[in-house]
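Handout, tutorial session.
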Amino acid sequence: MNSNGSAPLPTVKASPTKDILGALGLGFYALFTVLPDSSSLVVSWPWVFIWQVALFLPWLWLLRQAWVQQRFVGLGYGLDYGVAIAVLGLGGSTLLAQFPQQARWYGWAALCALAALYALNGWCHSSERRLKLLTIQGGLSMAFILVSLGLWLSQTYLPEVARLQALQPLGLNLGYDFSVLELRNWAPIGHQNYVAGYLVLSVPLLGGLCLSTRSPWKWVWGAGVILGLIDLYTASSRGGWLGMLAIAVFGGLVLLTRRQIPLRLRMMTGLGGVAALGILLLANNRLRSLFSASPLDSTGGETAFRLITNTAGWAMGLAHPLFGAGLGSVPLQYQTYRPGWAGREAELVYQLHSTPAQIWSELGGFGVCLGLAITLWLIYWGVRLWRSQVRTADPNLIFTWSLLAAMLGYSIVSLTDYQLDIVCISGTLFVYSAALLSLLRQSIPVHAITTPLGKTTRLKGVSWAVVGLLLAVGIWLAPIHRAWQLSSLGFNALSQKQLAPLRSNLEEAHRLAPWEPYYAYQLGWNLASFNLPNEDRASRQQRLLQSLEWFRKAVAASPFQEAGASSLGWAELLNGQLPQAMPAFLKATQLVPAKHGGFHSLGLSLLGQQKAELAVAAFALEIVRNPLWLTSPIWSTPQYAAIYPQVQAAVVNLYQQLLQNRPNQDPLTAYLRQCLGGVYWWQGQFAAAEAQWQTSELPLAKQVLAIAQQKTPSTDLPILKAWLEPQQRTEWVQKALAQATKSQPDPQLVEAIQAGMAQSKSLDQWIKQRAPLRQYQRERAGFGVLSRHIDGPAPLDFFPVAENMAMTLFFADLLPSPSYSPDLDNALQPFRAKLWAMLQSTAAKP
């Protein structure tokens, strides 16, 4: 017994073979820390199988500790009771989840994480092992930083610099822009916020190792701190820098309490740290926005993104206040709770970009209470540990500071992102937790659960129960992984243009895991879009019918996603089932009202049923939310030409209704007048357009009107210069395209624009009648990641997009379409609701 009456933890001499399971676990952990794009690869075959196998290792390690060492070591300090409550809460949430299979998948990963914590806690029973654990973690952090910087420099920074230099001869002198998501440091995890979160956890540990280690390793760890801050700069994560700022403040407070250090040195160190952070912040164009961004900014972007996701998370939690909607439910239910005013921002997510919001939505009040309890426990025991070490002048105080600082900084990051499903981040948190528990046991010993296995038959029973649990989980996981493997084989066949193997493999995958909508979605899309040479019409029609059936199965498995509803509607259209298509499109527009093509697809299904008045109303709603669609060449096709005048009149009428009784100084009023002026201009009503644009601050509008009125305005816009100065047209068209696309101009497009201008008598004629056209289908970007499967290709929407390239590239500001405008979407919502009500009442009639 210790002097305070507590029992010490058992010290077991390790043999070279006893820690083989721990070494294997470390190997998998290191692999998924430095593996490029690991956050995405974990949802592809065979990587998903590899990390799922790794999840069994903590349990086996625990069993080895119980059977070989004849001991089971609890966490102590009341945490074991908290773990028991957490397991019960996870069970309750899983039992009540609407999507129980997904909840079991994520719940099993959470249980394995707890097993890893217990295994680490049992292993880390001495100061030597604690130092070894933190040193290994520090070395892994160094490897992460080096890999991160190397990949970013070689795959992102240098290619972008070369691209920008190639644009300089065209008059574009652009700098490296961290506001572009793709240019931030994603490596190796796969997303800049993940990189920042890991660095916020790692830099304080590297600092602690630097301060506590003698040369030459001191300089190695010190270099790691500097490189880590540089890496954090390249990640350009505002949440990461807020976390680092919290760490800096914490470090400053620690310095102020260290009276052993001269006051002048403390002040210089603190000011130097603040100055270094400030320089890095000001040098990054995106991070500078921290000082100018408004939380009420209505222009969209990441502030709006988080406002939307947190609003949806709050609504989801309110709908399931006790145990939440269940783990893994956010990507499946998010659009049901997404606010209508969100526009086209945050259409799809698989996490809510806020740990509290994620916990509240998926685990409800139980999860929130558990999170608060963990936070309060950490504060209470962290303060006690700190005081105890200060009182005894414990040299381990440096590690306590670094670990607590890391957790403080990461708590700030967690408010802006959810990252607990990232292996290296959750693993680092558990390593730090085990180290803090080890420090606590050294400074403030308590009686730990150290039950001798040979004397307690209950522990033997628990061990055998764990073995049974592992067998049961293995049996449950086997068909899931077999389905994943089969789908991967099917997609490999698809890449070789072989449809039959794709169909057979995905059909079997669906049979093994029918609760997974991904296989059915991919079958639906690929059966409908695959082109078989020399296929007869009957066979093609048969494939379309099969595609429709698979979409129905996908929507049944995941009924709350716009992609599924709109795809089902188009599958009904392709099979000539117009009445059945309308409800699917209706559902799609209710889930994401501002989605490009949503109301047009609804209008098309109504037009095919000879419901012209309702179709016109749907088309008008599409155009008012996406005004450029008015200029699409699709309206000149026979299917729409007859109804196009009615659509234009309905658009003008809708704008006029929206403008009624609106104050002149209101920003939405200015926007609506800008768009209405654009509609009049497109119709050739220049006087009406000028009346709407008279207060416009857009020079392009006045210049286009002036040219239409046979005037020659002063302009520096390359595309207008190309019209006004035909002798230099090639040069100006190239500059216009480079400016619009921020890339090298396509020679064929340059030639097409020149030819169209040469054949036109007026700029107006070129824009509206002779401009190049483009037809394509939009890709469902991120569908695989959001579905937690990336083996298959990104599907294409069935909705055919046809664009007037003069409008989309050069004159889009005449008919602006904001991605995010809560005022506009709130104003449109009553008109949408009226149409929905009419359609629902029509559908309800026999």
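The second record follows below. Compare its token runs with those of the first.
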Amino acid sequence: MKSDYPNPCFWLLFLLLFACQGSKKVVEKVDPPQSEVNEVDPVQTEVAADTVAVKPDKARIDVLEDRISDYKASRTREFDLLHVDLALSFDFENQFVNGEALLTLKPYFYSQNELVLDAQDFDIHSFSLIIGDEETELNYRYNTQRITAYLPESYSAEDTLSVRIKYTAKPNENPAEGSSAITDTKGLYFINPTGNEEMPVQIWTQGETEHNSKWFPTIDSPNERITQDFRITVDDRYKTISNGVLQSSIQNTDGTRTDRWVMNKTHAPYLAAVVVGDFVKIEDSWGDIPLSYFVEKEYEEGAKIVFQHTPEMIGFFSDLLGVKYPWPKYDQVVVRNFVSGAMENTTISVFMEELNLNAGEAIDSEWDGIIAHELFHQWFGNYVTPESWANLTLNEGFANYSEYLWVEHKEGRDEADMHHVSEMEQYLNEAKEKQVNLVRFYYDNSEDMFDSHSYAKGGRILHMLRSHIGDEAFFQSLNHYLTKHALSTVEVHELRMAFEEITGRDLNWYFNQWFLASGHPVLEYEVDYSQPENLLLTVSQGQNLEDTPLYKLPFKVSWYEGGKRFEKEFMLDKAWQQFAIETGSPVETLFFDEPVELLAEKSSFRGKDHFINQYNLSEFGVARYEALDSLSSMFEEEPGVVQLITLGLKDSFWAIRELALMNVSQHPEWLVSINNLEETVFHIAKNDSKNTVRSAAIEILALINADKYSGEFQKWMDHPSYYVSGAALGAYLDNGNNIDRAKIADTYSDENNIRIAVALADYYISEGITDKADWFHEKLNSQNGQSLYYFIGYYGDYFARMAGEETEQAIENLYGIGSTHQTNYIRIAAFQALFGFIDEPGILEKAQKIFEQEEDDLAKRYMEFFISSYIESN
């Protein structure tokens, strides 16, 4: 599973991580105290006459008893569900699933005379037991969530049973609250079932965590493993995609077709999936493994680019893990209105519609991370599955880290480290409000486990472990883990044992502090250079030790001599500790955690010379980025710093070139005072290998001399990359001396790409061009995900400025998005845009209504801030 969240503040978050001076944080305790009360013997019979009875602390006892009752254990296995045989058809008008299920199972260990199955919001038509050729109707009790069937006798673990259930599933009934990662819990979704909307007709499922029992009866628990045989009947114009292999496809006389999908290897029930829709199929392969990409027809050429690295990814992960891709095929499907970023169903990953890109948009596709994430789940999560949601990080931490592994392989260490820092900041940002154990057995709802702890923190912990034990040991341990526990369920201790069995080291300390506790280190450090050949490093831990461990923390220091890098590893295991670092020759600059591997808040006092040396010496792009950013923010006016910043324009790492361009844009006077700087920016705009960097350079050229570069902008408008063409179009339209701007804007008005749309929207707004209401409505409807998030601001701004330009319709559109959109950050954007009309009658009431019905904590805090600020100012 991959959450769908925007990252518009990526660089801001990055800058925050590298603040040179930090402060200690005290985090409010989340879980009740875990200490034990003194035991009192309740059966004591003799009490001395002078003994005074001690009353237990009732409040403390209540807390401990609540903790026992709140513990989320793995589901007890009364039965072992072996196989699910389904016949499915769909009632589009009523949005029902008509099903017949034949389940094969046996008592797990103890004899059983009752069978309990998960079946949420069904009409049960019949429930029968099949023994040999005999089929017997069973009595059962049904509470709309679970069926309890009464068996005619007790059966032992030696007995294999079959039960047949005919039913109608109603997934739209009683949906439970979702989470930030999975925004809805219907299990199965009808998209545009009547065909009346301007989007395709589709059906798709999303079973994680325990939502597949919304459309077929099962034991809906991650510690079950099943094989399956699905027969899916649909109108002949639609394709079906499901787990396993398509064994047959039979045309029926009524214009329908029945496809049979067979899955012969076991997997957890939550990973079962069905997708129905009018897709084109793009065929590919990796060795003897068939690969397919399913998208809407208009995105066929784009999909060939978006998913083009899939075969290489499968080969890379197979080689890295030493375990060949374990399933018979792999499909990837892009659907509409998906309730998460993506879902890793076995042999079929389903993605949100943001991956629907045309060929031009796909040139700058940035979706390799999510594609790698879902693919890695085919090993971590599907092949080896956590026995409970408490262990979710064994799925999501690994999938999160796979993004780093792939980027490191494909784009290099610098790019991967930047991704690593972004993920680290995701967790640290969440940790300001919430610090919980990574593996945790106390939560209100299993959906709560889908957070930046399970994902980003889990991935960072694996990264630190890899750094500590080395690549060979790390990947051999993963191979051992996957091989030993293939097609079975695990908990975190089995991961620890896999590492211990390979390395021969006791790693309890590492797993206890990182996987089984909350928080992270807060470090302060300083270096004493008074003896340049024998440096003294002092490190202290400042985290709140009441609810965070005192860490045993491996860390590395490094330095450079004669262009060669040296490194030593030390172990911090005290609250305050000093380390003597013998370098053999004088060292001017020592680096602590140079490649930013530690998941920690770090603070130190470092001056200009340190950062100049860091930029000039470090072989790590992430360290050079930190140095250049620190110099530009703290020492910009000091001699030599400006020249060093502009030197970043020629850095080998694109992110540093982009950072340097940002600094140039903030200081146009540099273009006059620094020789050849304008020529360097023009060279970047024309030739840089990274299109995002080219677009930044184009924007600077527009500031330098928009008339001078007008011809270049016109040429670049037709560049195949929307980053380049959008920046060029914006630069051209922003120049009032270009008399053909209206004609140029009209030429691109049919484009839906967000970069083109934003350039046009900015032009229409800044020039006060009326009669564009229909265009803004159309573009609003054509955007989704992050593109919609960015466009909403322009949409609201246009109608707030252009009185009478269908303002009522715009307000209703924003109100609808703010009230009902499935994504929290888009609801926030629409809510904020409404404040452009806040002085009009009834708008404040609409905003308050959105706020009152909002259930997401983050969105609610933003909305409350806007409302309270407005009320206070009026």
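Points raised in discussion: The chain has a mean pLDDT of 92.
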